[in-house]
Amino acid sequence: MQTTSTDALPGSLMTRRQLLAGCAVLVIAGPARARRATPSELAPRIQVWKGPSCGCCKDWIRHLETNGFQVSVSDAGNTNARKQLGVDIKYGSCHTGLAGGYAIEGHVPVREIRRLLRERPQALGLAVPAMPIGSPGMDGPEYGQRKDPYDVLLLNKDGSARTYQTYR
């Protein structure tokens, strides 16, 4: 194919028309080829099972939402969810969650949930057994300034647990 000096780039056989067509393809395909956000970069999602009238559960959910989590709530109680997720009752609390494939039992701070989702350990999930005063959801004005020490436990798949983070 013979080109004239007005159709081709200097030192190239590519015509202006071919160059413009190539640029159009890049403009259209560019966004599709852009790096997609990883799940940890998006707002994390969590499913929560709780009783219909539990106030501290609602406060913990507000803690999650305030810190960027997208929360889906079931008010049917958490006993069945806890069992299905494999969380032993000795680690139990008033609500159970599922985030990124991990069980989240009780008043676990967002900081530790984000850490869990970032580190992705081989584990069942996290738990804050019982309902320690001062933990997220148990820190409202009705508790005054009281803050009881508590541990966030990393639950292992074999039923054991170890301290993941201590709050004093």
Report what the structure shows.
With 168 residues, this protein is of the alpha/beta class. It has a single domain, classed as Glutaredoxin. It has a seven-stranded mixed sheet, sandwiched between helices. β4, α4 and β5 form a beta-alpha-beta unit. The radius of gyration is 26 Å and the shape is globular.
Secondary-structure blueprint of this entry?
Layout: H1 16-33, E1 45-50, H2 55-66, E2 70-74, H3 79-85, E3 95-99, E4 102-106, H4 110-119, E5 125-128, E6 150-155, E7 161-167
Parallel strand pairs: 1-2, 4-5
Antiparallel strand pairs: 1-3, 3-4, 5-6, 6-7
Please name the defining characteristics of this protein.
4 helices; disordered N terminus; 7 strands; Glutaredoxin; 28% helix; 23% strand; alpha/beta
Kindly report the spatial arrangement of strands forming the biggest sheet: 2-1-3-4-5-6-7
- Percent helix, as a range, is 25-40%
Largest sheet, strands/sense/barrel: 7 strands, mixed
Looking at CATH, which topology would you report? Glutaredoxin
The sequence of SSEs as H and E is HEHEHEEHEEE
* Strand content bin: 15-25%
CATH class category: Alpha Beta
Number of strands: 7
The tally of helices reads 4
Structural class: alpha/beta
Domain count: the total is: 1
What value does the Rg take, in angstroms?
Answer: 26 Å
Query: What separation lies between the terminal Cα atoms?
Result: 79 Å
Name given to the CATH architecture: 3-Layer(aba) Sandwich
- Average residue pLDDT: 85
Which blocks of ≥5 consecutive residues have pLDDT under 50? 1-10, 23-35
Form type: globular
